[in-house]
Write a structure and sequence with these properties.
17% of the residues lie in helices and 37% in strands. The protein is built from 5 helices and 11 strands; from the N terminus they run βααββββββααββαββ. Strands 1, 2, 3, 4, 5, 6, 7, 8, 9, 10 and 11 form an 11-stranded antiparallel beta sheet that branches. A hairpin with a 5-residue loop joins strand 10 and strand 11. The longest helix has 18 residues.
């Protein structure tokens, strides 16, 4: 019998659609994020702790950060197998590992996400030791180095101004996590898009919510080309708060 304590044995079939690929047939950043959210969502529903299950209890999973290490860039409309498991929890956050491979077992990319449980009535984070239901014991197998905390001191230069439209809003009433990867992708230059097959890592941190009608400034790090690294963030024009930070690392 499958339980939360042997959840790493679950396998999920996935398909890469053409909408996730760029003109060269290479996976866009939000394609990786979409696969992660799809498999994690299907997995949590399987064990009765998915979005709708928790909303009935007045709670929701809220993603804090997502880190991805690309072993082999995804090119073309291929089929994949995804696995995931709860690997760690601390005072507030839950860490989850995900790994994706081709159907023949060839590794493609690994990921780690950090989430919190939020009380939807007052938007406060719920401590794991105060939960009234079982989420299983962590299976402490870690696939990549990752942290929900970000430290960087890059000089940031404005490059775009954008608005949150109703189409960005998801089931939880806030801008969907995958949209932030789209915002970051849109900030890339043509040479950077052409170099996307050499992206080896992406970290995206969700700092504060963006709501319908709000405008935000998209910024880029100034010296990314020399470092093989690019930082893109978004700053809410109304509050002045950083909404998200995306870090891309190229070979």
């Amino acid at each position: 019998m499958m339980t939360l304590n042997n959840e790493s044995q679950c396998r999920y079939e996935c398909t890469v659609g053409m909408e996730w690929l760029n003109g060269s047939g290479v996976m866009k950043p939000f394609g990786y994020q979409s696969l992660i959210m799809d498999v994690a969502g299907r997995h949590l529903r399987k064990f009765g702790i998915g979005v709708d299950d928790l909303l009935q209890k007045g709670m929701a999973w809220v993603l804090v950060s997502s880190s991805i290490e690309i072993i082999r860039p995804i090119e073309g409309e291929i089929s994949l197998i995804g696995r995931t498991w709860h690997s760690e929890q601390d005072r507030l956050t839950f860490r989850r590992e995900l790994c994706f491979s081709e159907t023949d077992g060839t590794p493609l990319f690994n990921a780690a996400t950090f989430s919190v449980l939020m009380d939807m009535s007052d938007r406060r984070i719920i401590r794991p030791d105060r939960l009234q239901f079982d989420i299983g014991q962590p299976h402490s197998e870690f696939l990549i180095e990752a942290s929900p905390k970000l430290r960087f001191r890059d000089e940031m230069m404005p490059c775009d101004r954008r608005k949150i439209y109703p189409s960005c809003i998801d089931r939880l009433g806030h801008t969907n996590n995958c949209r932030y990867s789209e915002f970051a992708y849109d900030a890339l230059t043509e040479p950077e898009i052409a170099n996307l097959e050499n992206m080896r890592r992406m970290d995206i941190f969700f700092k504060s919510e963006l709501k319908p009608g709000e405008y935000f400034t998209v910024r880029r790090s100034a010296d990314s080309v020399e470092k093989g690294e690019l930082i893109i963030d978004g700053v809410n024009e109304e509050t002045g708060r950083q909404s998200f930070v995306c870090r891309m690392v190229f070979a």
